[in-house]
Task: structure prediction
Amino acid sequence: MRIAIVCICYNAYDHLLTLATSLSESLSRAENVDFTFVVVDNSTKERNEQVLAGVSAMNFKTHYLKSDNVGYFPGFKKGVELLSSLLDFDCVAISNVDLTVRADFFETLKAQIDIVSDEVGIIAPAILSKGRGGDLNPKTLYRPTRFSLLKNIFIFKHLWLFRLYRKLSDLKVKNSAGSLAAGESFYSPHGSFILFTKQYFLQGGSVDYPQFLFGEEDFVAEQCLRIGLKVQYQPSITIIDDDHGSTSREKLEFIASEHVKSLKYIVDTYHS
Result:
């Protein structure tokens, strides 16, 4: 089975090494998994050659691309271009850096890919947030209305409302444990770790999302709707979210403004 993960790194080499180490340890437990790890380095700081050398020496194939800071999903698009045909892989994932995988990650992922339905375009794992005390999936159960997206744009334009929104979102995560059963479908997966099945690419699903940050969840959800595939929850595949990656280090004003830009794009493209 061939699996690829494209990781987007922005000034967080410490997290990159921790993620890669967890992948290496998990891979050592799995059988018949051909794994490729792609690092797209959007960092503006000096490269940490020691970390990069350590990652390249691990028990899997690696590709490294030093990129301008093009953003999260545009970085993913650059990363998949380093792979052979996407159809050569059984699963391709986009990953943030402030994550680790559970020791049985590759074993459980392989088991799910072996049985996944051709109706599934995205597998959404459990993403357990240390800071928020819950599972970040599902991101959104049902397709949002144009009105709800415009309401969020208004909220994100006002920092005091945005702060309140974030606190309420954290509470929602904490209280959502067990809200969805394994195998159920929903609208959008959390963007920090998304697993694309081969069927996603066979049916023409795109990774050409132009926004710098945020909104990628709605983009891939709309891609699945367009090509008639589902987003399926599989919590046996478990990711641990450290909540201290590159995005969380940015100023709140910047984060809010990027949310507004991405929401406007989603509204104009899919809800006009």
About this structure: The chain has a mean pLDDT of 95. Strands lie at 2-9, 34-41, 61-66, 91-95, 99-101, 120-129, 134-135, 185-186, 193-197, 230-241. The two ends are 41 Å apart (CA to CA). Residues 252-270 form the longest helix (19 residues).
